[in-house]
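Memo subject: From amino acid sequence to discrete backbone structure tokens
Keywords: amino acid chain, backbone geometry, structure tokens, three-dimensional fold.
Body of memo: The sequence and its backbone structure tokens, given next.
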Amino acid sequence: MTEPARIGYYAHHHGRGHVARALAILARVRAAATLFTSAPVPTDALPPNVGVCVLPPDLPRPGGEEPPPGGLHYAPLAHPGVCERMAAIAAWAARGPALMVVDVSVEVAVFARLLSLPVVVVRQHGERTDAPHQAAYEAAVACLAPFPEALESPGTPETVRRATVYAGGLSRFAGRARPQTFCPRTVCLVGGGGSGGPESSPAWTSQDVADAARATPGWTWTWVGGDASTDTPASLRTPGWIDDPFPLLASSEVVVASGGHNATMEAAAAGRPLVVIPEARPFQEQVRKAEALARAGAATALERWPAPEAWADILDRASRRDPAPLRALADPDAPARAAQLLDDLAVRYAV
């Protein structure tokens, strides 16, 4: 990258989804960009127009932190990591960039606005009508939804809707060709790892998955990113993390996933019937995503991991679900649509 970065993009470190979304969008922007994150970034996927600023961690320290003031979610006192990461963003802002994208952090969004940077806030599902989220939305020149308006939550304030550009169902796999056939009686299980921070918990355990596989004779399960239990049945495969699970998703008869954005949109791109089981996340994020998918007729949404004896019926019913409504959510133009918004705003606000 030879020209000064015009766009900054902050990607939260929880899970893999924020960085994956950032790279899918930044690969299509025309402007030079800097990715700010403390999450791992796959260097082989880094677009040539993108540099990385590795931020120090800002995790809560042992013993907890002082409660934040009312307009913020996280503002620990005397935390070196928080100070250093904000200083890095401020140093970059002093070079005169045009735009800062925040995915996601109320504090970074408000701080960037205080640095006189135009801010784009990436929206997520969940109950986000609290004062800190509203402050971030009001600080932004635009909100970017990486999902179609059809998945909008009924309780979203009209002011937030009007400020939102709906990019469509954004996935790194959008537009990839699907196989014409699938492997009968196969389940691909993705997500459920509980990597969303201290307020999160997994939707299932290794024992849960082993029991479900054992209770569904004739079905073969593959758990992407999962760990084998001590009594894993032969019908359960645990290959570990797979960088490109698209062939496996697209060739399975049924996909079971958490309610994370990337897991559900990657399932939509793969186009196989989907069962969603939300993990516990702050602001009920995955619960609201699962509800939105169910309202759209795109997935079977469950409240929690079912008892082993329920799985045979769940899989049989899911296998008969028409995947067309789910496939329609995966928009191959969504990353480019999001990138166009950022490029247009960068031109508008260029110093």
User: Anything to note?
Assistant: The first strand starts at residue 7 and ends at 11. The chain has a mean pLDDT of 94.
